[in-house]
């Protein structure tokens, strides 16, 4: 294990956040896995401020992901609690794309000193996987040098299709639209190949008022690093602009049902897609398959409604949902339910 100047050896285990929150069982948990403090370039918040902001935003977990250092890992032990899980991580800012290493060991540092032509990134992805961690392609179309992700997604577990407010005042930007389109185009091929790569959203917090916009809502067996990362890896998750947005998605066929990230065997019969949305007044719900946008419905002024659409496995290899505000900005989007 590579460490930051022996950081892990110098600190007691009590200085690192626990990997599990006791008493928090199976359920949906909200979290932001791309967060920076004053220890990252451009960061203006202390870990204490980030923890307070996470709680105020209604988050259950966050990941500390400083640029190319583990220096903050030991700052979080006293800031986690029975209401907040802190996952240890890092953002590796290589010269041809940034990526997140989530769930690495305390004090572990993932090398970032390479570019796509060096053909070295696989080595570092393996190191994260060996530690039980998750590798996330970060903000693939960020509009600045080194921000555009030039590596293939092969070897990465997840793609960050929605990155937060830090580059503008808008929670949904053109670079997020490009990342979502790229990910969406790959789903049909990846699902046919038997291994699709989930999407996630994170704030990339650097400044006050950014944390949790957006965040990922994960179905996990418990509130622990292992369970949360397992849920994200499996695609049992959706992305929310804020904690005021609520969503559930289910596909039913022949007395069976499946939820986000799951596969449903329809036995050749018809399938009913049902989505329940709350917190997006006068917004729009759209249904997406490998054929693109196949159905739209408007939400009422109170922002809460249940929408249904019928399909079959022959027509649709998968279905996923997007919810947008009247302005067109994204409010929520889901990973797919796969039909077979």
UniProtKB/TrEMBL annotation:
Region (Disordered): 1-22
Annotated Pfam families: PHP_C (PF13263)
Domain Polymerase/histidinol phosphatase N-terminal: 31-96
SMART domains associated with the record: POLIIIAc (SM00481)
Molecular-function annotations in GO: 5'-3' DNA exonuclease activity; 5'-3' RNA exonuclease activity
Gene3D superfamilies: Metal-dependent hydrolases (3.20.20.140)
InterPro entries per record: PHP_domain, Pol/His_phosphatase_N, Pol/histidinol_Pase-like
PANTHER family: EXONUCLEASE (PTHR42924), POLYMERASE_HISTIDINOL PHOSPHATASE N-TERMINAL DOMAIN-CONTAINING PROTEIN (PTHR42924:SF3)
Name listed for the protein in its UniProt record: Putative metal-dependent phosphoesterase TrpH
């Amino acid at each position: 294990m590579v460490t930051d100047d022996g950081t892990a050896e110098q600190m007691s285990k009590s200085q690192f956040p626990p990997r599990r929150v006791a008493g928090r069982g199976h359920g949906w948990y909200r979290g932001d896995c791309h967060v920076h403090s004053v220890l990252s370039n451009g960061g203006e918040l202390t870990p204490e401020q980030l923890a307070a902001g996470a709680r105020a935003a209604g988050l259950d977990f966050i990941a500390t992901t400083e640029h190319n250092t583990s220096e903050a890992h030991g700052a979080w032990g006293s800031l986690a609690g029975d209401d907040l899980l802190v996952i240890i991580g890092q953002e590796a800012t290589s010269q041809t794309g940034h990526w997140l290493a989530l769930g690495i060991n305390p004090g572990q540092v993932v090398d970032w000193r390479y570019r796509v032509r060096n053909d070295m990134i696989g080595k570092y992805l393996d190191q994260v996987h060996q530690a039980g961690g998750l590798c996330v392609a970060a903000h693939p179309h960020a509009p600045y040098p080194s921000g555009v992700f030039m590596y293939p997604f092969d070897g990465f577990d997840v793609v960050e299709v929605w990155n937060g407010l830090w580059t503008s005042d808008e929670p949904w930007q053109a670079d997020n639209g490009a990342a979502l389109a790229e990910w969406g185009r790959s789903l049909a091929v990846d699902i046919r190949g038997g291994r699709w790569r989930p999407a996630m959203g994170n704030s990339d917090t650097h400044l006050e008022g950014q944390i949790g916009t957006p965040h990922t809502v994960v179905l996990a067996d418990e509130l622990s690093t292992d369970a949360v990362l397992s849920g994200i890896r499996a695609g049992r998750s959706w992305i929310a602009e804020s904690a005021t947005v609520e969503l559930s998605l289910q596909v039913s066929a022949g007395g069976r049902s499946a939820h986000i990230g799951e596969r449903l065997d329809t036995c050749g019969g018809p399938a009913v897609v049902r989505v329940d949305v709350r917190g997006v007044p006068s917004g729009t719900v759209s249904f997406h398959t490998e054929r693109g946008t196949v159905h739209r419905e408007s939400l009422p002024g109170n922002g809460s409604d249940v929408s249904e659409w019928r399909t079959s496995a022959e027509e649709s290899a998968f279905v996923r949902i997007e919810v947008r505000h009247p302005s067109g900005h994204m409010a929520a989007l889901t990973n797919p339910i796969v039909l077979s």
